[in-house]
Amino acid sequence: MEKITTAENAVKKIKNGDTLLVGGFLQAGSPETLIRAVLEASSADMLTVVSNDTGTAETNMIRLMETGRVTSVVASYIGANPLTGKMMIDAPGSVTLFPQGTLAEKLRAAGAGLAGFYTPVGVGTVVEEGKDKREFDGREYLLETALRGDVALIRATKADRFGNCFMRGSTKNFGAVMAPAADYVVVEAEEIVEVGEIDPELVTVPGIFVDALVQAED
Amino acid sequence: MDKKNFIAKRVAQELKDGDVVNLGIGLPTMVADHVPDGVQVVLQAELGILGTGPAAEKGKEDKDIVNAGGSCITVLPGAVFVDSAASFAIIRGGHVDVTVLGALQVDEKGNLANWMVPGKKVPGMGGAMDLVVGAKRVIVAMEHTAKGNHKILRECTFPLTAAGVVDRIITDMAVIDVTPDGLLLREIAEGYMVNDVQEATGAPLILPEEIGVMKTNECFQGGLPKVWKG
After folding, report:
1. Are strands B105-107 and B112-113 parallel, antiparallel or unpaired?
2. CA A216, CA A32: separation in Å to the nearest integer?
3. Residues of A in contact with B46 (CB under 8 A)
4. Which residues in B lie closer than 8 A to residue A111 (C-beta atoms)?
């Protein structure tokens, strides 16, 4: 199965109303080539973006958001992207914040076939509003549900033609967790190599999760 | 020594050899520069690093190795990189011994407010809620008051980061423990009297028979801090 394609082709799969899982933590591991392709080669509208932070004032997500095509954001920290902050003030319901570990675990749960999980994080804060609360062994926990995406956009340091990915250093962050949690997973890799060239012991994301592979441009 | 370094130095004395430690941004980050001799800690960064080192030197930055503030840092020999789900399993699972964070407000029940001021732009809670709930020990490190306004209160008025999680408060004036009976004054910085600390605190302080003097002089002085020793 040929997975290598262009960024332009890969983002054509994105439809109006899709939920995009976008990897990266600020600039680290952010799939800048793919986000630019969504901006330039896709016209999909009414998008929901799930991202730890929606990037910074210098990364491409803010440019995509300037078009108004991102109508909903799910994140944990938005202090580095002034547009997401403005969105939260203008239309409070359009931005949903979760504690960072809860956001990561919601994605992990989706990829792992779980409907949700109970976490002690957020008890006694605004995070608990509207959520089922249950006591286990004398401690209170909140029910958080799994969070799936239609499409995941992820960056890898190196990928082989089958899609096995190595993500270096602190670039694994959310991308590695999102890969199993979306129906269509696109990886941009800084380097694309032949199958067998990545040590199986060092694969961060198995290629079975990856549908399309794109050469990263920067 | 400026106020912030004084606080950071006192906080550093709380760390024990072998502790896994997460330091919040700002003042708490400075604690790494003051870890005492003979104490080696593993610093955790919530985007997935165990064993962070100092900031990267100019010209030697590695774009793939950054801390939770997005700055290029270094890692020490023995460091480990994990993804965000694993990083927060470490945090939420009680494998971080100490977390040091700043606060907007903290109260006598150990409630902490440090992620949003109502009516102002909301940056998001990031990993703060997970850290204070998951870490075995939560130390608030901050200046005692904000432009003369109380930050230590009977009850927080800002939205909480978590309820009943703070163990110890370390400021430029005092070391205060959160106990089931209220705030217990443990130490006072030189130059202050009990009354000064009480006036600067918006909740009653419990006074034990002996109150210590905040000491920072046995800290490591100068050169490379021990935390970076690989």
Report:
1. antiparallel
2. 8
3. 100
4. none
Q: What is the pLDDT of residues A146-157, one digit of tens each?
A: 999 999 999 999
8 A C-beta contact, residue B129 and residue A127:
yes
Asked whether residue B223 is assigned to any structural domain, the reply reads: no
The CATH number of residue B130's host domain is: 3.40.1080.10
Q: Which residues pair with B22 in a beta bridge?
A: B99
Check B124 against A25: CB less than 8 A apart: no
Cβ-nearest to B129 among A53, A79, A121: A121
Please identify which residue in the block is written with the tokens 């006074």. B207
Across the interface, whether the CB atoms of A104 and B45 are under 8 A apart is answered no
Q: Is the complex ipTM more than 0.90?
A: yes
Domain contains B96: yes
Q: What is the pLDDT of residues A92-142, one digit of tens each?
A: 899 999 999 999 999 999 999 999 999 999 999 999 999 999 999 999 999
Domains for chain A: give ranges and CATH numbers. Answer: 7-112+147-215 (3.40.1080.10)
Residues of B assigned a catalytic role: 46
Chain A partners within 8 Å of B81 (Cβ) = 168-170, 172
